[in-house]
């Protein structure tokens, strides 16, 4: 008798699963015979684990199968096909042998058929409910006079401030509670279209007398809508320099599905103060630890059009549909499933030449820093100095076409290693000169040499502090001159 290895039995292996081996090892040996539409299949082999042993060895012989189990080395060598066939119970008199095959087919295909039928019924029921919902929405539109929008009945007297205060303390992420989100979405009336892009449209809407922004995605851009909703619902994402998220909902209008993302509304959209953008970027890039923490987030599509400006001239970073998240605890990098990679004009060299380390989260943060440098350049062009200011132009406006291709940008940024043009007047102004140095440190060809968002924020704070000290010193000199003149007179 052969010796056992690691306490396992040596069994004879004979059947389609054995390949070229004649022996196998397991906790039980078995022999089996199965009668099916393809004839009789005889097999010998091993069983491993208590579940498989219990499943196979406790099965009583049926019309189409018999299994013999044993617990000694090579104990299944004495069983034969004929000996196992003799264990099969006889079919009832008059019953054809084909009944066994039909019974097998019934057991195998029956559950599949039932699942298919249940799926069809579920789809039909959902369509019926969806159709009824659309009819109710149309009735509300007619009765309440909505302007091409979606309105339902009031759910209470809660103000926007009340709901937002609740969302900040409930641990539910940066938006409203999910049930409230859907209710709010259906109470909004669309007033005017304020912007269009590749994703769809942005509308100014009204909810209980207050302006809100409604970003409407088309159904073909569902991945962007889903990803942005997922990111905005991240716990502790709310920040004064990240666009305030209110709600997200999927609805239908004019016989087409629309995906809504509802945020705070800010009248000024575009360029703004660099310090508040850097502050928002620091918050995104920073992981907050704890049970109610937030992952680190890289934007991947930072540009001036994705930066909104409040009435107080504070900037908010928006459009998180391409964002990437990372958690140190499990070292999990979540890039989402959106194939879009950002705006070509703002792409970093490593994205354009496809050398970016896609499995490294820091690589995505460095892409944000490159884009921030371009936004900083846009801001500097619109900054008055000695009575001079340039017209607004996008980055690389004089080097690539209006709608540059991937290859256009790769040639300029990677091959020729060009950067946006710096006017001479910037170097004669201390503040603009400091900004030029900062933006150049965001544009290094080597991604690891670029500044971090935190270092940018500290540098901008230092520039601002120096500017304030200069103004304070100038005011002091004027006051001294005034006091001297007063004493002489």
From TrEMBL:
Q: Where exactly are the transmembrane stretches of this chain?
A: 104-126
Where is ATP bound in this sequence? 215
Q: Where is this region: Disordered?
A: 467-489
State the SUPFAM superfamilies in the record: Protein kinase-like (PK-like), Snake toxin-like
- What are the UniProt keywords, alphabetically? ATP-binding, Glycoprotein, Kinase, Magnesium, Manganese, Membrane, Metal-binding, Nucleotide-binding, Receptor, Serine/threonine-protein kinase, Signal, Transferase, Transmembrane, Transmembrane helix
Q: Which InterPro entries match?
A: Activin_recp (IPR000472), GS_dom (IPR003605), Kinase-like_dom_sf (IPR011009), Prot_kinase_dom (IPR000719), Protein_kinase_ATP_BS (IPR017441), Ser-Thr/Tyr_kinase_cat_dom (IPR001245), Ser/Thr_kinase_AS (IPR008271), Snake_toxin-like_sf (IPR045860)
The compartments listed are:
Membrane
Annotated membrane topology is: Single-pass type I membrane protein
Protein kinase domain span: 188-467
Record domain GS: where: 158-187
List GO terms (cellular component aspect). Answer: BMP receptor complex
Q: Name one GO biological process term.
A: transforming growth factor beta receptor signaling pathway
> Which reaction is this enzyme known to catalyze?
L-threonyl-[receptor-protein] + ATP = O-phospho-L-threonyl-[receptor-protein] + ADP + H(+); L-seryl-[receptor-protein] + ATP = O-phospho-L-seryl-[receptor-protein] + ADP + H(+)
User: Listed GO molecular functions?
Assistant: ATP binding; metal ion binding; transmembrane receptor protein serine/threonine kinase activity
Tell me which cofactor or cofactors this protein depends on: Mg(2+); Mn(2+)
Could you say which EC number(s) this protein's record lists?
2.7.11.30
Pfam families referenced in this protein's UniProt entry, alphabetically: Activin_recp, PK_Tyr_Ser-Thr, TGF_beta_GS
**Keyword Protease carried by entry:** no
Would you identify the family this protein belongs to, as annotated?
A: Belongs to the protein kinase superfamily. TKL Ser/Thr protein kinase family. TGFB receptor subfamily.
Record's protein name: receptor protein serine/threonine kinase
Q: Which organism is it from?
A: Sphaeramia orbicularis
């Amino acid at each position: 008798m052969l010796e056992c290895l690691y306490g396992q039995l040596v069994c004879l292996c004979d059947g389609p699963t054995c390949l070229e081996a004649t022996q196998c090892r397991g906790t039980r040996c078995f022999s089996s015979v199965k009668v099916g539409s393809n004839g009789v299949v005889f097999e010998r082999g091993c069983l491993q684990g208590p579940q498989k042993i219990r499943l196979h060895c406790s099965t009583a012989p049926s019309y189409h199968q018999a299994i013999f189990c044993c617990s000694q080395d090579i104990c299944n060598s004495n069983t034969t096909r004929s000996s196992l066939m003799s264990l099969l119970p006889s079919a009832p008199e008059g019953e054809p042998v084909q009944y066994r095959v039909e019974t097998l087919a019934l057991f195998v295909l029956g559950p599949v058929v039932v699942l298919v039928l249940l799926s069809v019924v579920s789809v039909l029921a959902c369509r019926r409910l969806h159709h009824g919902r659309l009819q109710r929405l149309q009735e509300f539109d007619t009765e309440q006079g909505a302007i091409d929008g979606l309105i339902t009945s009031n759910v209470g007297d809660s103000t926007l401030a009340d709901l937002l205060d609740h969302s900040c303390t409930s641990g539910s992420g940066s938006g409203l509670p999910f049930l409230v989100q859907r209710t709010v979405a259906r109470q909004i009336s669309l007033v005017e279209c304020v912007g269009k892009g590749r994703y769809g449209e942005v509308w100014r809407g009204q909810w209980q007398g207050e302006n809100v922004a409604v970003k409407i995605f088309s159904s073909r851009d569902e991945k962007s809508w889903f990803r942005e909703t997922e990111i905005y619902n991240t716990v502790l994402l709310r920040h004064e320099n990240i666009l305030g998220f209110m709600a997200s909902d999927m609805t239908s209008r004019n016989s087409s599905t629309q995906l809504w993302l509802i945020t705070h509304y800010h009248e000024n959209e575009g360029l703004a103060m660099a310090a508040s953008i850097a502050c928002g970027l620091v918050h995104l890039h920073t992981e907050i630890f704890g049970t109610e923490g937030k992952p680190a987030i890289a934007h991947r599509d930072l540009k001036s059009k994705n930066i909104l400006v409040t009435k107080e001239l504070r900037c908010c970073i928006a459009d998180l549909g391409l964002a990437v998240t990372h958690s140190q605890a499990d070292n999990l990098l979540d890039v989402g499933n959106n194939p879009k990679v950002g705006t070509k004009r703002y792409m970093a060299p490593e994205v354009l030449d496809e050398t970016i380390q896609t499995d490294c989260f820091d690589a995505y943060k460095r892409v944000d820093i490159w884009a921030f440098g371009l936004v900083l350049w846009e801001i500097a062009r619109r900054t008055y100095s000695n009575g001079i200011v340039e017209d607004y132009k996008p980055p690389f406006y004089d080097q690539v076409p209006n709608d540059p291709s991937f290859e256009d940008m790769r040639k300029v940024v990677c091959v020729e290693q060009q950067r946006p043009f710096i006017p001479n007047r910037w170097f004669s102004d201390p503040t603009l000169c400091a900004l030029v140095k900062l933006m150049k440190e965001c544009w290094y060809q080597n991604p690891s040499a670029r500044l971090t968002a935190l270092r940018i924020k500290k540098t901008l704070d230092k520039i601002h502090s120096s500017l304030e000290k200069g103004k304070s010193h100038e005011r002091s000199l004027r006051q001294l001159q005034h006091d001297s003149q007063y004493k002489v007179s």
